[in-house]
Amino acid sequence: MTIRIAMWSGPRNISTAMMRSWENRSDCSVVDEPFYAFYLAQTQSPHPMFEQVLASQSTQYEEVATQLSSGNVTTPVQYQKHMTHHMLNNCFDWAIELKHCFLIRNPKEVVASYTNSRGVCTAEEIGIIRQAEIYTLLTQQTGQEIPIIDSNDVLKSPEGMLRKLCDRLSVPFEQNMLHWPAGKRDSDGVWASHWYHSVERSKGFAPYQEKTILLSDWQQEVVEQVMPAYMALYEKRLR
């Protein structure tokens, strides 16, 4: 029976590098942001490659949810990369039997990176408040003690944090998770050509670097809106 793992993140995290890490295991297949087309169809948000994303996936929530919970998987482990802002309702019945984990990142870094990529940034678009809401919902519905990892902790100690995460998810750690071949993947979403340039060049997790981040007034306002939600998750993170 396949172990299905749902990783709940927001944009401009190390979520795609984490997907590479899991896909490089000997026993794992991955799913890249399966609710993206649903989110765009519902919100009509003017994202890059809007039409291509809609054409690449089902826009029907129940259809996607059924595939993720009971669709055929040929590997012992399936890793699902989810963006929390894509989840527009609180219907998570499909996810009760999955194992869950959360990947968080300091909002200052998220806001700076997201703005650099799109030129705009709102609290809703980076999904941090929604991340805290989903953590509460899934904890209540599944009864799991859901592990949370912070991206900077991972970059400082990739092996240490991945070992702790695998232990909490009751799957064996593999050394293969620390490195992977550079390049594109068939499993990447169609949006990879816009968003995944750095990851496509990578062969492992980038070393942690302390950054000086200068934000405008409006960027700082976004950070202040989402910081309480981030801190609530940060205090529960694996250490």
UniProtKB/TrEMBL annotation:
SUPFAM superfamilies: P-loop containing nucleoside triphosphate hydrolases (SSF52540)
Keywords: Aminotransferase, Transferase
Annotated InterPro entries: Class-IV_PLP-Dep_Aminotrnsfr, P-loop_NTPase
One protein family per Pfam: Sulfotransfer_5
Gene Ontology annotations of biological process type: carboxylic acid metabolic process
GO MF term list: transaminase activity
Record keyword Repeat present: no
Keyword Transferase: yes
Family: Belongs to the class-IV pyridoxal-phosphate-dependent aminotransferase family.
Protein name as it appears in the record: Branched chain amino acid aminotransferase
